[in-house]
Write a structure and sequence with these properties.
By secondary structure, the chain is of the alpha/beta class. It contains 13 helices and twelve strands. The protein has helices at residues 2-10, 40-56, 79-88, 99-107, 145-159, 177-191, 206-215, 227-230, 233-242, 252-256, 267-282, 304-310, 316-321, and strands at 30-36, 65-71, 93-97, 114-119, 138-142, 165-170, 194-199, 220-223, 247-249, 261-265, 298-303, 324-326. The chain is globular, with a radius of gyration of 25 Å. The model is unreliable at 1-26 (pLDDT under 50).
Amino acid sequence: MRRRAVFMLLCGIVVVSPASLPAQPTAQITRIGLLSSFSADRDRGYVEGFEQGLGELGYRVNQNLVIEQRYAAGQLDRLPALLAELLDRRVEVLIVAGAPAALAAKHARLTLPVVFPNVADPVGVGLVESLARPGGNITGLSSFNTELVAKRIELIREVVPSAHRFAVLFNPDNPTNAPQLALLIDAAPTLQADVVGFEVRHPDEIERAIAATAAQRAEALVVIDDPLLSSHAGRIADLAIKSGLPSAYASGPWAAAGGLISYGANVRDLYRRAAAYVDKILKGANPAELPVEQPTKLELILNLKTARALGVTIPPALLLRADEVIE
């Protein structure tokens, strides 16, 4: 052993014990918070879009980035407590899904950067000063729903040209819902339609509200997107079918749940694009100077199974324009 040690010394070979090596720095893990007004089931595909966007930018979820997720599932009074849980996790950026979650973050007066992927009217509800210059710690993407709500009446009319009286289901506790109803009422003369609003503040009110549409002689139904209502999408779509009401909604999950028509922003794409905001902020960008973007993709989804159940025929021209047809 002594000869071997001398030989290694003469050859310049040094043996170092692993215990004597300095500790290697561990890879930094970025922690993102996701606070959603909606349910985990409703958001699953959208979160996958967000993860896809992160992956395109070099992040690896559960490797160098963790997403802490909290879902209110339409129970908006839970948002402050869920927000507190995320803050306890020391997240670096907060993603807020839906106007109620975004406003919960706004009212908490956070200094943390906040990104929203899908708020209908961020200026109207007071989240940002303007689309071009948000002016605070909050920015993101608008789903543009406020501007598209009247189009859903036009789409129902293509399927049922005789429809004249439209029931509108909405949650007045959601600050983006009443303005959309007001836009529909203002557009009604131009659309040659009558619009009647039906409030739903609690799941127990859904069945009663849809049943009340018969007394108002409603011929079709428009549902304004909302976390509470979307948490009961299947139930609402089923009640609409049983009431003989062709129905239109803002996003794909509604059509998948049995709605006749959905038309609006491709929300998965908005979430994918939200990843770029996170990346820029983590690299030092100021949210106040990141303009709010609007949808680049709108999608029309039709449910033929629901059309058959209602006894209506979707015109071939409308079928050709559809991005997706559910058989």
